[in-house]
Design brief:
single chain; 66 residues; mainly alpha; 2 helices; 0% strand
Length: 66
């Protein structure tokens, strides 16, 4: 998006990982309003590839455009 730096966007993989984390969380974690990246940091959860086969090499960042 014009004028917004790439660092301002998180990767799809990070968003999906945070959703999975919320689906698998303990009852103490439910009902909270959290930022996806803060949640992943708090849980010390790595960002995985969308198919779950390996750790996503770019972490929270979007894959560089080619």
């Amino acid at each position: 998006m014009a004028g917004i730096p790439d660092e301002a966007f998180e990767s799809m993989e990070a968003m999906v990982e945070s959703i999975i984390a919320l689906c698998e969380c303990d009852a103490d974690t439910t009902g909270r309003v959290v930022n996806s990246l803060q949640l992943l940091d708090e849980l010390k959860r790595p960002v995985m590839e969308l198919d779950g086969s390996a750790v996503y090499p770019y972490g929270y960042k979007r894959r560089p455009s080619s």
